[in-house]
Amino acid sequence: MPKKALVTGLASFWGAKAAQHLVDSGDFDLIVGVDTRAPHEAIDGVDFIVSDQSYSSLARLVKKSGVDTIIH
Question: Domain extents for the chain?
Answer without folding.
Answer: 4-71
